[in-house]
Structures are given as structure tokens and as C-alpha cells.
Amino acid sequence: MENPRDLWGIEEFHQLIADGLLTFPDITLKDVKDRSKGDALAKGLVLLQTTWFIVQCIARGTKPGLAITELEVVTLALATLNGAIYFFWWNKPLDVQSPVRLLMTSGHTLSNRLS
User: Fold this and answer.
1) pTM above the 0.70 mark?
2) 113: closest CA among 6, 24, 25?
3) What separation in angstroms does the CA of 57 have from each of 64, 65, 80?
4) DSSP letters spanning 1-69
5) Which of 63, 76, 77, 99 is deepest in the core (most CB within 10 A)?
6) What is the DSSP letter of 115?
7) From CA 44, how far away is CA 57, in angstroms rounded?
8) Secondary structure (3-state) at 80
């Protein structure tokens, strides 16, 4: 368990950055993707299912005699918004749970800085 003195508030964090006392690790895109639990297969299946629903609604709406319920119209609107969200969030890491540790430069501690 972490020492409560090692946890920083936002004010302390901004002050440490302004003073140049934090060492930021090099994090590559590969590191971020490695920590992500979402994969293209899961996202692709959801996108395929949503697209299939949209195509069905459009096909039924253009053919006389096949009705679309109000619930389907609302779901169609939400599915369209879902498509836009997936477009913007496709590369967003999902369920990343391991922290990135920020280190103080040598010779400094948080308790020395805030005293």
C-alpha cells in the first residue's frame, strides 16, 4: 500500500511541474496499446451489429407495407450517434488499470518541497 505522503493533490502536482522537479517516463504508443483491454475484434463486432440494424431500418422504411415503430426510430437515432462516437473513440485505450509512476528528481521529496 502506498504511503499517503506520496499522494499529491492537484496544487502540489502543478507546483512540482512548474519547479521542474518531476521526471516524466517515456511512454510509447505500444505501451498504451499493450495496457488496453479493448481490441479491434470486439469493436468491429459492435460496429457490424449497429450497421446491420441501421441498414434494416432504412430498408424497411423505404419499402411500403413494412412499418418502423417509434422505439426503432429512437434506437436508430441513438445508433447513428453511436457510430459517430465509435469513429472518435476507436483508438481510445480501454480499461487501462496500471498507473504510470512519476518520479521526483534526485534529492527531492514531496515533504521537503511542501514544508
Assistant:
1) no
2) 6
3) 13, 13, 12
4) ---GGG---HHHHHHHHHTT-EEPPP--HHHHHHH----HHHHHHHHHHHHHHHHHHHHHHHSTT----
5) 76
6) -
7) 20
8) helix
Between vectors from CA 41 to CA 36 and to CA 42, what angle results, nearest 5°? 70
Half-sphere exposure of residue 60: CA atoms within 13 angstroms, side-chain side: 13
Instruction: For 34-81, write each residue's pLDDT tens digit.
Output: 766 667 787 788 889 988 988 888 888 888 888 888 998 999 899 888
| CA–CA separation, 52 and 64 (whole Å) | 20
Matching residue, cell 507546483: 15
Residue showing cell 502506498: 2
Distances (CA, A) of 107 to 14, 61, 99, 111: 19, 70, 23, 12
